[in-house]
Design brief:
- The chain is of the alpha/beta class.
- The protein has two domains: 262 residues, P-loop containing nucleotide triphosphate hydrolases (Rossmann fold, 3-Layer(aba) Sandwich), CATH 3.40.50.300; 87 residues.
- It contains eleven helices and ten strands.
- The strands form two sheets. Strands 1, 2, 3, 4, 5, 8, 9 and 10 form an eight-stranded mixed β-sheet that branches.
Length: 365
C-alpha cells in the first residue's frame, strides 16, 4: 500500500461526481430527458456551451433519433455482437467497465448509459451469467450423483450468485467512482395493483426493487443500483420527462425534482453547480428539516410555519408536501388518541368504586 494522505476538505476543489438514475416504461421520455440532463451537466461542469457528452446506446442506435437536437452528443453503438467478427460478446459487467474507462480517457464530462437494463437482464448480463453458472453447477452435481439421488437446482442458486455478484458489484463501484458525471437509464415494468383496506388505496400486489408499495413500477435492474445513485426517479407515461416517482432524491436536490415539471437542461446545470459548490445544500436541508419539525407538531403548527416562509422557501418545502402531510396527520391522530377517554367522569368514579369493592371483597352490590 502506498502512502496514506489526508487532505483538508477546503483544499479539494475538484467537482464531486453526480449520478442520476432514470427509469420508466416506453413513452416516458427517458432518452430525451437524459440528453437534456447531460447537456446541463456538461455545460455546468465545463462552463462551456455545447460541451460534449457521451451516449452509450444499447437500443439499436435509438439515441440517434435525437442527433439533430443534441449535436454535441458523442455516440457509441454498444451491441451484444462484435460488428467486425460477428462474435457474441454480450453485455457482461467487464464490457461496461471498459466503456466507462474509455469515456474517461476521452475526457468526456458526462456519460449516459442507455439502457443499463441490458447489464442486468440482457444477453450475457447478470441474470444470464447466473443461469449459466447455475447450469454448470447442477450438471456437475448430477454427474456426481450418477442417478443415485435427485439434484435440486435451487440448492445451488446462492452458490451461483456468489460467483456472479462480485463481478456486477465491481461494475457498480466503477460507476460510483467515475470521474465523469453519469446518467443511468433503465427500463421499468408496471406492477399489478391490489386494494389495501387499511390504507384505503391501491398498492403493489408484490414487493419491488424500489422497496416502495406506492410506486407502481419495477425497474429492470439490480435493486441496490438505484440506491447508489445521487438521485433516482421513475418516469410515468402520464407525464413524460417528469420525476413523478422519486425513489431517492437528497434534500439538496428536492427543489430541482418537481413531479409536475419536466426535467431539463436547467436541472442538469443546477446539479453541476452543486457538484462544484455545495454551500447552498446545507441551507436547503435546514429549510426542509425545519418544515418536517413543524409538521410533527400537527397540521395547525405546520400551517403556521408555512405562512412564515418566504416564497422561495415555500417552493422548496412544496417538494416534500406529501411527507409533511403524513407527519402532521400522524401527529394529530396521536394527539386525539391521547386526549380521548372512553369513560366520562361519572363512569370513571363508578369504575373506581367497583374496583375498590372487589379489592376488599365486598362485591359490586
Amino acid at each position: 500500500m502506498g502512502k496514506i494522505t489526508f487532505t483538508p476538505a477546503h483544499q479539494i476543489a475538484d467537482p464531486l461526481s453526480v449520478s442520476v438514475g432514470l427509469s420508466g416504461g416506453s413513452g416516458t421520455g427517458k432518452t430525451y430527458t437524459a440528453g437534456l440532463l447531460a447537456r446541463g451537466l456538461a455545460e455546468g461542469i465545463t462552463g462551456k456551451a455545447g460541451a460534449p457528452f457521451g451516449y452509450v446506446d444499447t437500443e439499436n442506435r435509438r439515441a440517434l433519433h435525437y442527433r439533430s437536437d443534441f449535436p454535441e452528443m458523442m455516440h457509441f453503438d454498444f451491441s451484444a455482437i462484435d460488428p467486425d467478427t460477428g462474435e457474441m460478446l454480450g453485455f457482461g459487467p467487464e464490457r461496461w467497465i471498459e466503456v466507462i474507462d474509455a469515456a474517461e480517457e476521452a475526457g468526456l464530462p458526462v456519460l449516459i448509459l442507455d439502457s443499463f437494463s441490458h447489464a442486468w437482464e440482457g444477453v450475457g448480463g447478470v441474470l444470464d451469467l447466473h443461469a449459466q453458472v447455475l447450469d454448470e453447477m447442477v450438471a456437475a452435481a448430477e454427474k456426481r450423483a450418477n442417478g443415485r439421488y435427485e439434484v435440486d437446482p435451487q440448492k445451488y442458486s446462492q452458490l451461483a450468485w456468489a460467483q456472479v455478484k462480485p463481478r456486477y458489484r465491481r461494475l457498480i463501484d466503477r460507476i460510483v467512482r467515475a470521474k465523469c458525471q453519469i446518467v443511468v437509464c433503465t427500463r421499468a415494468k408496471p406492477v399489478m395493483q391490489t386494494f389495501d383496506k387499511k390504507l384505503r388505496k391501491e398498492v403493489n400486489a408484490r414487493k419491488t426493487k424500489t422497496r416502495r408499495a406506492d410506486i407502481p413500477w419495477d425497474p429492470a435492474a439490480d435493486g441496490d443500483l438505484m440506491f447508489e445513485m445521487t438521485a433516482m426517479v421513475i418516469l410515468d407515461p402520464s407525464a413524460p420527462g417528469c420525476p413523478v416517482h422519486q425513489v431517492k432524491v437528497a434534500d439538496q436536490f428536492k427543489a430541482l425534482f418537481d413531479p409536475a415539471r419536466p426535467m431539463g437542461v436547467a436541472t442538469g446545470r443546477a446539479m453541476a453547480e452543486w457538484a462544484k459548490n455545495q454551500d447552498s445544500a446545507a441551507e436547503s436541508k435546514r429549510v426542509l428539516d425545519a418544515a418536517r419539525d413543524a409538521a410533527r407538531g400537527g397540521r395547525e403548527a405546520f400551517a403556521a410555519h408555512w405562512k412564515g416562509l418566504s416564497k422561495t422557501d415555500q417552493a422548496l418545502v412544496r417538494t416534500i408536501t406529501d411527507e409533511c402531510k403524513g407527519l402532521a396527520e400522524a401527529a394529530d391522530r396521536a394527539a386525539v388518541q391521547a386526549d380521548s377517554d372512553p369513560l366520562d367522569d361519572d363512569e370513571r368514579a363508578r369504575a373506581a368504586i367497583g374496583a375498590y369493592r372487589r379489592l376488599i371483597g365486598e362485591g359490586e352490590g
